[in-house]
Design goal:
Distance between the termini: 6 Å
Number of helices: 11
Largest sheet: none
Length: 301
C-alpha cells in the first residue's frame, strides 16, 4: 500500500511509484503514434475519413460510466479486504484480553496467542504466496511449524490446535463454562474472516467486465484520431495520449484494486498488519515488542 504525504504540484507529474504509468506507457505511446500517423496521412497522403466529435463524445461518456461502475466494484473489494483484516487485528487483541480474564497468565495463554499469530502468517501465505516458514517457527517452534505447514489448510490446522487446547482447559477446570463459550465465540471469528478473504481471492469480478472494458477502450483510442482531424491539428497526438492515459489508467487501476492481496504497490499491507498483531501479542505476553514495519520507498508491505 502506498503511504506518502500529498505531493507538491511538480512532484505530482513526476511520481511513478504507485502510479499505473509504467504499466500503461506502451498504450499511451501507441495511441500518440497512431494519432500522429492518421494526421500525417490526412495532411500529406490522402484525406482520411472523419467521425463526428459529438458521436465520440457520447461514446466516451458511455465508456466513462462503465469504467466508473467497474472501478467502484473493484474498490469495494479492496476496502472489504482491508476491513476484514482490520477486524482480525481487533479480534486478536480481544482474544488476548479474554484469555487474561478467563484463563490468566500462563502456558495456555502463550500457546493460544502464538498459535493465532501462526494462523495469520499462514493465512497471509495462503493469500499471496509469502514465505512464512521462518516466522511461524519463531512463534510456535520448529516441530509445530512443520506440522502446520504440512497440512493442506495450515491456517485451519492452527485454529484446530487452539480449539483442542480450549477443550483440554475446560476438561481440566482451567476455565469455566462461561469462559469456554466466550473464547469459542471469539475463535469462530477467525475462520469466518479466512473464508471472507478466500472468497475475495477466488472470485474476481466477472471476466466479461474486463473483456468489455479493455476492448472498448482500445476501440475508442483507435477511432478518436479520426474525430480530432478537424479540431486538434498538430495537438492531436497529445490529446490522444492524454485520453489514453485516462482510460487505460482507470482500467489498470481497476485491475489492481480487483486483486487486493497481490504483491503490488496498491495492495492491502498484509505483512504490516501481521506485525501489528505481533506487537499486541508481545504486549500481552510481556515479551520484547518488535518494531512496526515502515514503508520502503513509500510502499508498506
Amino acid at each position: 500500500m502506498i503511504v506518502r504525504d500529498t505531493p507538491s504540484r511538480w512532484q505530482l507529474f513526476l511520481i511513478l511509484k504507485g502510479s499505473v504509468v509504467p504499466q500503461i506507457l506502451p498504450n499511451i505511446i501507441g495511441a500518440a503514434l497512431w494519432a500522429l500517423l492518421v494526421l500525417v496521412l490526412d495532411r500529406y497522403v490522402m484525406a482520411m475519413p472523419t467521425i463526428s466529435i459529438g458521436a465520440m463524445g457520447v461514446f466516451g461518456l458511455s465508456l466513462s460510466l462503465f469504467l466508473g461502475f467497474r472501478n467502484n466494484a473493484a474498490y469495494d473489494r479492496w476496502w472489504e479486504a482491508r476491513k476484514i483484516w482490520g477486524r482480525m487485528v481487533s479480534d486478536v487483541r480481544s482474544l488476548a484480553q479474554e484469555l487474561r480474564i478467563f484463563a490468566g497468565k500462563g502456558e495456555d495463554e502463550e500457546f493460544i496467542l502464538t498459535r493465532i499469530l501462526a494462523f495469520h502468517h499462514l493465512h497471509r501465505a495462503q493469500l499471496r504466496g509469502d514465505e512464512v516458514a521462518q516466522v511461524v517457527r519463531h512463534w510456535v517452534g520448529a516441530d509445530a511449524a512443520e506440522q502446520l505447514m504440512r497440512q493442506e489448510n495450515g491456517p485451519n490446522a492452527a485454529l484446530r490446535d487452539i480449539a483442542t487446547r480450549l477443550r483440554e482447559m475446560a476438561e481440566d477446570g482451567r476455565i469455566d463454562g462461561f469462559g469456554q463459550r466466550a473464547l469459542a465465540e471469539r475463535l469462530a471469528a477467525f475462520p469466518a474472516a479466512q473464508a471472507g478473504n478466500e472468497r475475495l481471492l477466488t472470485t474476481p469480478l466477472p471476466f466479461v467486465y474486463s473483456l468489455l472494458v479493455w476492448r472498448t477502450t482500445y476501440l475508442y483510442c483507435l477511432l478518436l484520431p479520426f474525430a480530432l482531424l478537424d479540431s486538434a491539428g498538430w495537438f492531436e497526438p497529445l490529446v490522444a495520449a492524454v485520453v489514453a492515459y485516462v482510460f487505460f489508467g482507470l482500467a489498470q487501476v481497476t485491475h489492481e484494486l480487483e486483486h487486493p492481496f497481490r504483491k503490488q504497490a496498491n495492495a492491502v499491507p498484509l505483512s504490516a498488519l501481521c506485525r501489528v498483531m505481533e506487537i499486541s501479542v508481545c504486549n500481552a505476553l510481556g515479551r520484547e515488542v518488535p518494531p512496526r514495519l515502515t514503508p520502503v520507498d513509500h510502499v508498506l508491505d
